[in-house]
Amino acid sequence: MKKKRILSGIQPSGKLHLGNWVGALQNWVKLQDDYDCFFFIADLHALTTTYEDTSNLKKDIRDVAIDLLSVGIDPKRSTLFIQSDLPEHSELHLIFSMITPLPWLERVPTYKSKIEEIKGKDLGTYGFLGYPVLQAADILIYKAECVPVGQDQLPHLELTREICRRFNNLYKPIFPEPNALLTQVPVMVGLDGRKMSKSYGNTIPISDSPDALAKKIQTMFTDPKKVKKDDPGHPDGCAVFAYHEVFNKAEVKNIKEQCKAGGIGCVACKKQLAEILIAALAPIHERRSVFEKDIHQVEKILIDGAERARAVASVTLKEVKEAMGFLWV
Ligand code: TRP
Ligand code: SF4
Q1: Ligand 1 centroid vs 270 CA: distance in angstroms?
Q2: pTM exceeds 0.70 for this model
Q3: CA distances for 310 relative to 38, 88, 220, 303, 307, angstroms
Q4: Which of 296, 318, 292, 309 is nearest to 82 (CA)?
């Protein structure tokens, strides 16, 4: 039986962190077993918010590519590429922009909330408003059936479905309606106990060295009422405990009891977590060091991925133009 096609993208906005890993990438790696996977680095999307200073773009794209390969995205099974290597995405984005009513874009909840959230940047641009139109083009150009995304991306997916229906009704039904593949994953908390996010500066990059990792974990937020080792603690609400729940399933019950009973102190509890995390990340770091030493291999993988993606995207674009009545197709 033919495998279903899925597609997902990630913005190159600095090194990927544990939140990205647990929240999305571990799932991508698993999906490779059962689906025809297309994964890409959404560099054009990154430009919608980071357009003034692009001096880090090249480095960020390489970093994300290495991160993706290190966590286990397998270029033999999955098509891994850079969005801007496929001008087909941009062309379909332009075509979709012709049929997308402005109110559809203005009412996307992420539009207003992002403008509020990201201070100090002028997001009153055409490109930023059109962010979800580009995302629709990313998805539909591969006729992806499923899109693994987090909850926050659901409004974008809904808009993709609306654009899809509008195109199919206006011209020819060539696009299948994509579905979200929602994954029930824990939201990783950052070092300070809030959601892990680059904008809070509370992340743990997956490429952190064991030393850096151990140091960061020592600074992590715990139960402020637990000062001495034998003070009874409250694991719920403690960031360190939240990590034990994700990464140390075998011991988590025991830690909970010990914490509450004052049998374990926060320093020891953090040390144990550091050991577990360092071990979990070791194979990733090993692969990373191989790719870092051979950036040409990474670039070759991306070029090859772009070629495989183009074989699909160019056919769809041709169908689109045929359906719309362009002269040269
Ligand atoms: N908007 C997505 C995010 O920020 C990234 C993205 C761009 C994407 N194009 C996509 C995700 C297409 C899924 C499908 O996470
Ligand atoms: Fe958190 Fe561990 Fe300290 Fe309990 S002992 S408060 S779980 S760090």
Answers
A1: 34
A2: yes
A3: 11, 8, 45, 10, 5
A4: 309
Query: Residue 84 C-alpha to ligand 1 middle, in angstroms?
Result: 14
5 phi, psi to nearest 5 deg: -95, 130
**Predicted local confidence at residue 113, as pLDDT:** 87
Alpha helix stretches (DSSP H) within 229-294: 239-247, 252-261, 266-293
The predicted pLDDT at position 282 comes to 97
Query: Relative to the alpha carbon of 156, which ligand is closest?
Result: 1
- Cβ of 235 closer than 6 Å to ligand 2, yes or no, is yes
Residue type, 219: T
Phi, psi (degrees; rounded to nearest 5) at 181: -110, 90
d(CA 32, CA 311): 20
The list of the chain residues with pLDDT below 50 reads none
Residue 329: the pLDDT is: 87
Which residue's alpha carbon is nearest to atom 3 within ligand 2?
A: 266
Confidence (pLDDT) at 197: 85
Pick the closest to residue 188 from 173, 200, 175 (CA basis): 200
Q: Which of 6, 8, 88 to mutate to test the pocket of ligand 1 (most atoms within 8 A of CB)?
A: 8
The number of CA neighbours under 13 Å toward the Cβ of 74 is 10
Res 184: pLDDT: 75
**Domains of the chain and any CATH numbers:** 5-188+295-324 (3.40.50.620), 208-288 (1.10.240.10)
Inter-residue contact 89 to 134 (CB < 8 Å): yes
Quote the pLDDT of residue 165: 98
One-letter amino acid of 298 = V
Spatial CA neighbour of 232 closest among 258, 270, 196 = 258
